[in-house]
Amino acid sequence: MQLIQIKPNAPxxxxxxxxxxxxxxxGRQMTYLRISLTDRCNFRCIYCMPAAGMVFQPxxxxxxxxELLRLVALFAQSGFTxxxxxxxxxxxxxxxxxxxxxxxxxxxxxxxxxxxNGLLLPRMAAELKDAGLDRINVSIDTLDPLRFKFMxxxxxxxxxxxxxxxxERVGIGPIKLNTVVVRGQNEQEVxxxxxxxxxxxxxxxxxxxxxxxxxxxxxxxGLVTTEETKARLEMHYGRLxxxxxxxSDPARLWQLPGARGTIGFISPVSEPFCQFCxxxxxxxxxxxxxxxxxNDEIDFREEMRGGATDEDLLRRLRAGIWRKxxxxxxxxxxxxxxxxxxxxxx
Length: 346
Ligand code: SAM
Ligand code: SF4
Prior knowledge:
The chain has helices at residues 65-77, 96-103, 121-131, 145-152, 157-170, 190-199, 216-222, 226-237, 301-305, 310-322, 341-344; strands at residues 22-23, 29-30, 32-36, 82-86, 111-116, 135-139, 175-181, 203-208, 241-242, 251-255, 262-266, 279-282, 287-289, 297-299. By secondary structure, the chain is of the alpha/beta class. The strands form two sheets. It has a twelve-stranded mixed beta sheet with strand order 9-10-11-8-7-6-5-4-3-12-13-14. A two-stranded antiparallel sheet has the order 1-2. Residues 41, 43-45, 48-49, 87-89, 117, 139, 341-342 line the site of iron/sulfur cluster.
């Protein structure tokens, strides 16, 4: 497949200083922080972790609650308004509800969302809602229990479905479901996944698999492009209806004819959305990751543990974001990832 290269905006020669915002050299303002709360997980999805030999970081290398909250407050001071909790599996971080409750108190924090595999939602959704969680994305690749068990290496589909229903019941919405489409696994099942949007106001999002560390073969053989998935859906349901989407949202939205919900396509490989990127990631061990698919990171944990002041950290934050790379460079064959998705916070 020929990958598309998107030319960068002309880099600025002087720093943009509009208010307190954090801008990169291409004029993009960063307003969205994705936070990996842990590198651990209760699933082992085939496209995310290797079957065996996954090495987790010692707990003392991960940010403590106090360190994490300090950084979130500083990001909020720097113009970040949206925060997404992810992982690894964010629901297994001890006291995640307390973290959400405290983050919500910081001036500037407008929205806290979570990406989860949903397994623990049947018992946690009400508490998460009560703590202030605004929105949720649940990852679910198939509606076939056996296939689900295979793709997650042991997961229970019935519990995840119950978790999604519970999240909806307690009012965490709108519900979005993430499906990574993998050839030879679930590429035919996109038909059933899309059907969930007919009667429910849910967004069913189909993601192209990305070439993360530790899952090389699955990527090499597994990529199914958005074009192929869309064609498959249109063969079955007829032409999809376009829906307006926010340019900084990686999903391009469509609808099945007459459906209540929507279909989203996330195409980092075939149609990169780097041009409108407004996000950076904080890894569980306290590194600011400037681009999901590049190994360029800024260490906040060691700065904090070395006694840095808030002013030092704010300076480091702004200087780091200024050097955010233009794009992920997949089209240039520029693979420099170094970590798995569960360690970065996908
Ligand atoms: N454990 C949570 C979950 O699965 O939702 C949050 C962390 S997971 C790393 C975040 C998202 O990354 C999930 O939607 C997952 O499907 C997606 N993901 C993981 N590995 C991927 C890959 N190689 N390519 C594309 N998406 C991937
Ligand atoms: Fe765990 Fe999420 Fe990775 Fe699956 S995709 S192994 S649930 S972190």
